[in-house]
Amino acid sequence: MDNLKVLILDDESRITEKLKYHLEKRQFNVFTANTPNEGLAVLEKERPGVLILDVMLPGMNGLDILAKVKQEYPALEIIMISGYGDMDMVIQAMRQGASDFIRKPFQIMDIQLAIERTEKFLLMQSKLEAAEDRRALVSKELEGMIEKDFVGESQQIKNVLKMALKAAEDGDVNVLVTGENGTGKEIISRIIHYGSPRKKQVFAPVNSSAIPETLLESEFFGHVKGAFTDARDEKKGYFELANKGTLFLDEIADMPYALQAKLLRAIEENRIKRVGSNKEIPVDVRIISATNKNIDELINEKQFRIDLFHRINTIEINIPPLRQRPEDVLPLLKHFVKDIAQKKGKRVPGIAPALVNKLQHYHFPGNVRELRNMVERAMILADSDTLQPEDFPLRGEDTAVKPAIANGTLNIDEHEKQLIEAALTQTEFNQTKAASLLGISRDALKRKIKKFNIEIVKGIGLED
């Protein structure tokens, strides 16, 4: 089924191109125009389902265009945008058939959510679900995962998926997704949302570390007009925008300590107050959080609230790093090669067995995301019809320090003990970090420490 067509009509090309870029990333089919005549021509030719229309246009008022377009295309959903709109203008636009009115400056999420609220979008989503006609939710989500690069054959990945789909069955339970950068935490979070009773509502991703600390409270809870110097209009925060849906808090461990208490209150009471207001607003939001950090350590260091931790991790899902599941390298490699070849209009190259072996022994600090970047680079630069090991230069490949031969022998146990001691020393005896460096689980590391009778420096590493 085709993606929803969206036409953006605004005289500022900077705005139309920026919106086009971001909306195309969200799988909308986007057209742009900077004059009324251009817009009407595109409208007649492409027949989009949604029109994003600026009020102030050269030669013709946006409200006049609204009236004309609604008369000719009554089923068209129209979202008005303006930097000058007062309440009378908003009321007039709504009476003439606009489905939404958004003031400039706006966030990309504001436009995305406005589109996702339209009847045209909801109808298309409903038809898409009916057309897929899967026997069970699992099949649908597996297909969605493949499209979003969540591919694997290992038992670890199967367990992660199974837990995510079980968590999805309950539309209210809060979930904490942990794992290193590049393992696919947001993808698993989307699977939980779109597999849940909230799947027709908003999935709102928020990077907790990307928002300036001075704006955090306003971004999460909104503000009223005049709440602070630049608050010229009232604004909804993420909690209100995600009402009835899912709020995905990425990098939650980086959230300032002061904001954590307010977040905890909002989650516990299902109510928020906009900055500058005493009025409580009820919200119904499911929280999915993600982090690549050890929250237990942050709690011990008084950088993360333990009561908030217990609120957000009713279910915790850990995604193992790629180096701990080498059997997933080949299916991921095949998937990326096919996907990138299709997008770049290239022939699908072969994959040399030696390349698979090389990548299966690489430690992948950037995980699945790093592998995809490697494949894309190789397919741009490679001359052969088959991808070879030399097409994939690895980080530290030529400068890696190789262990010396212990006592002049090739005894495996001796070398293993040396590597474990080196990893423990390098991580100051933090066993979690040492295990990650060695590419094994922490339990496996503890067994090897006991096996080789390795002394743990007293007072160091005890947090493990």
Strand content: 5-15%
- Please tell me what the overall shape is: globular
What does the average pLDDT come to? 83
Count of beta strands: 14
**Number of helix segments?**
20
State the major sheet: 5 strands, parallel
Task: Report the uncertain regions.
Answer: 130-147, 398-407, 458-464
What does the radius of gyration come to? 26 Å
Approximate helicity band: 40-55%
Report how far apart the termini are. 51 Å
Structural class: alpha/beta
Question: Strands of the biggest beta sheet: in what spatial order?
Answer: 2-1-3-4-5
Descriptive notes:
The protein is α/β, with parallel strands linked by helices. 46% of the residues lie in helices and 13% in strands. The chain has helices at residues 13-25, 36-46, 62-72, 87-95, 108-117, 119-132, 137-147, 155-169, 185-194, 216-221, 238-241, 257-269, 295-300, 306-312, 329-344, 353-360, 367-381, 412-426, 431-438, 442-451, and strands at residues 5-9, 29-33, 50-54, 77-82, 100-103, 175-178, 203-207, 246-250, 271-273, 280-282, 286-291, 315-318, 350-351, 386-387. The strands form 4 sheets. It has a 5-stranded parallel β-sheet, sandwiched between helices. The chain has a 5-stranded parallel β-sheet with strand order 7-8-11-6-12. Strand 1, helix 1 and strand 2 form a beta-alpha-beta unit. Helix 8 runs parallel beside helix 9 and helix 18 packs across helix 19 (431-438). The longest helix has 16 residues, at 329-344. It is globular and about 85 Å long. The model is unreliable at 130-147, 398-407 and 458-464 (pLDDT under 50).
